Amino acid sequence: MVENSDNQEFVVLKGEEVVELDEQIYKYLGLDGNNFKYLYLINYQLISVIQRRVDIRNNEIKNKLFYDDYDGLECEVLKPGAKSWQKGKIKVELNVKFYPDESEEEIKENESSQSENQGENSGDNNSEEVETEVSPLDDLRQKFNQENQ
After folding, report:
1. 43 lies in a domain?
2. Residue 130 domain-assigned?
3. How far apart, in whole angstroms, are the C-alpha atoms of residue 78 and residue 137?
4. What is the DSSP letter of 133?
5. pLDDT given for residue 107 in this prediction
6. How many domains does the chain have?
């Protein structure tokens, strides 16, 4: 899902995307990253951490607001133009929105131009370089290996 806010498009993370948080951010959220420079959380883990940080002291109210296992908090809502209040329940749903530096089209264009360049270079019979598919997790693996050394 892509929306537009202040002329900057964002994507609502829904699945099991991995989010990288630097040390300052994860410590602010009250997480222990064993003093690593980065902490990696799956999207739903990040949402859970943010929900726990909301300063609602009454757990029953907090559960009813945030968690699907609960019905919500009873309330009344007055909508513009309505003649009376409407009874119902409220729930809070958190979404993590990601503002990419490059659009999906730009990423695909860069990948296609890189593969064209590799294709031109692979015609060289003297080249012993073996082509391997680049994984989006390679950067993550490299950072993890550097931090563990």
Report:
1. yes
2. no
3. 48
4. P
5. 77
6. 1
